[in-house]
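Weekly sync, protein design subgroup
Attendees: M.S., D.O., the rotation student, P.L. (late)

Item 1: inverse folding check
M.S. brought a backbone from last month's batch and wanted to see whether the design step gives back something sensible before we order anything. D.O. pointed out we never logged the input encoding, so this time it goes straight into the notes. Structure tokens as presented (321 positions):
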């Protein structure tokens, strides 16, 4: 099997696990506040992330080199996590994914003021077409606009902002800083909000949260292996396979059958996102390749960021050699 085929298959497996993770989020979201789910997700995730962080061979401290950018990225990650969990809890899975898939389009837009990226006509057209796909999914004036739709849009914008900031400061900041700060902030903020929304969780639901954390960590490890095996331009578009899982899971577990307009809108968004990835993968097509280098599926501050983990494992390998 070729390296690109291996990378693509690993990525498909990873995003299938992520989609299963989101099914648990939706199931628990029917009973608990997203703040409570995020808190326990971070709590159960800390031991696994700690094992990853202690392997960091890079000397240094935990003070960020770019404190304001780090603070903004951390805030964006916290907002994204709570918003995404709420959206999964209240909207059909396929519709939530369709809106979240607008993140690469927003990354392209934000790359102009933050990275100084030059976006030429073809990529601008892809962004405009993709945003039209978001409008098709939302259908303003036809369907009732819910808080869940707003939460999904906020999650897409927050994830894009967090990703583009990492692209700007990632070369200067330690991977430990990029991994740890969003998780610590999520834990602290959600702990403050927890007394306002807390409901006792039976053992089965706590086990569900623990399973979420294990799935997220495992899926992140697999996607890291995928990027090591194959080219980013092949691996990155595999994230859109989540819409297929969302459709299947929605039908099997929640009696959610996506309507035609959601399917059309999702297809438009996915096509525009894939086009942008392919354009950035061409030589001399983009200076910073901000979308192609966005290796995380969603920047929530709950799970390890893929690009930071990839940097950690590469440095660990270099140290051993």
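Designed sequence read out in the meeting:
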């Amino acid at each position: 099997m070729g390296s690109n085929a291996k990378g693509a298959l690993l990525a498909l497996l990873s995003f299938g696990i992520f989609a299963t993770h989101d099914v648990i989020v939706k199931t628990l979201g029917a009973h608990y506040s997203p703040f409570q789910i995020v808190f326990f997700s971070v709590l159960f995730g800390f031991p696994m992330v700690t094992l990853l962080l202690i392997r960091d061979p890079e000397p240094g401290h935990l003070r960020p080199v770019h404190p304001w950018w780090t603070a903004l990225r951390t805030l964006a990650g916290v907002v994204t996590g709570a918003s995404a969990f709420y959206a999964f809890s209240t909207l059909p899975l396929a519709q939530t994914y369709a809106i979240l898939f607008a993140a690469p389009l927003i990354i392209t837009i934000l790359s102009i003021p933050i990275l100084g990226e030059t976006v030429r006509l073809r990529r601008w057209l892809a962004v405009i077409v993709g945003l039209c796909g978001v409008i098709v999914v939302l259908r303003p004036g036809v369907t009732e606009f819910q808080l869940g739709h707003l939460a999904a849009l906020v999650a897409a914008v927050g994830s894009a902002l967090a990703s583009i900031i990492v692209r700007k400061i990632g070369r200067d900041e330690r991977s430990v800083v990029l991994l740890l700060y969003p998780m610590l902030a999520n834990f602290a903020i959600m702990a403050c909000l927890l007394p306002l929304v807390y409901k006792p969780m039976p053992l089965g639901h706590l086990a569900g949260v623990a399973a979420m954390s294990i799935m997220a960590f495992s899926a992140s490890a697999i996607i890291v292996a995928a990027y090591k095996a194959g080219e980013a331009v092949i691996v990155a578009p595999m994230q859109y396979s989540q819409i297929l899982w969302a459709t299947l899971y929605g039908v099997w577990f929640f009696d959610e059958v996506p309507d035609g307009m959601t399917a059309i809108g999702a297809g438009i968004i996915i096509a525009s996102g894939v086009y942008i990835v392919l354009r950035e993968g061409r030589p001399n097509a983009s200076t910073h390749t901000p979308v192609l280098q966005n290796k995380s599926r969603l920047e929530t501050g709950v799970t390890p960021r893929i690009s930071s983990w990839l940097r950690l494992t590469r440095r660990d390998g270099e140290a051993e050699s």
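Discussion: The chain has one domain: 3-320. Residues 3-29 form the longest helix (27 residues).
Action: P.L. to compare against the previous round before Friday.
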